[in-house]
């Protein structure tokens, strides 16, 4: 039972790390995202995903995966170029911003 408690605490700590982004900072960093993902994270071209209201943890993991080259299909090469110079804090801020928007 003790090991289960340790795992639960570790899980909660890792989830809180995902929630560390600042939506206001994310908005200020989102200018390059607008071309494909639209203003306010809503696309006008259906081949790109809407980001507004998306889960912050998912967005952060996706951006990290693009940056590391773990995603390779679709527009992955384009995304990798956009995220290559983003810091972990930048990624967290962008994720928090898009998650804060109304879908």
From TrEMBL:
Entry-linked Gene3D superfamilies: Cytochrome c-like domain
Keyword terms of this UniProt record: Electron transport, Heme, Iron, Metal-binding, Signal, Transport
Signal peptide as annotated in the record: 1-19
GO molecular function: electron transfer activity; heme binding; iron ion binding
Domain Cytochrome c: 21-102
InterPro entries registered for this protein in UniProt: Cyt_c-like_dom, Cyt_c-like_dom_sf, Cyt_C_IC, Cytochrome_c_Oxidase_Subunit
Keyword Heme: yes
Origin: domain of life: Bacteria
Transmembrane segments: none
Protein name from the UniProt record: Cytochrome C554
Native source organism of the sequence: Serratia oryzae
Lineage: Bacteria, Pseudomonadati, Pseudomonadota, Gammaproteobacteria, Enterobacterales
């Amino acid at each position: 039972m003790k090991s289960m408690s340790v795992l639960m605490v570790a899980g909660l700590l890792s989830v809180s790390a995902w929630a560390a982004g600042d939506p206001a900072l994310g908005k200020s960093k989102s200018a390059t995202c607008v071309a494909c993902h639209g203003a306010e994270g809503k696309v006008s071209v259906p081949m790109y995903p809407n980001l507004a209201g998306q889960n912050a943890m998912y967005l952060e993991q996706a951006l990290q995966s693009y940056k590391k080259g773990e995603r390779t299909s679709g527009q992955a090469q384009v995304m990798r170029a956009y995220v290559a110079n983003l810091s972990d804090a930048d990624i967290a801020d962008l994720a928090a911003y898009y998650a804060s928007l109304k879908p």
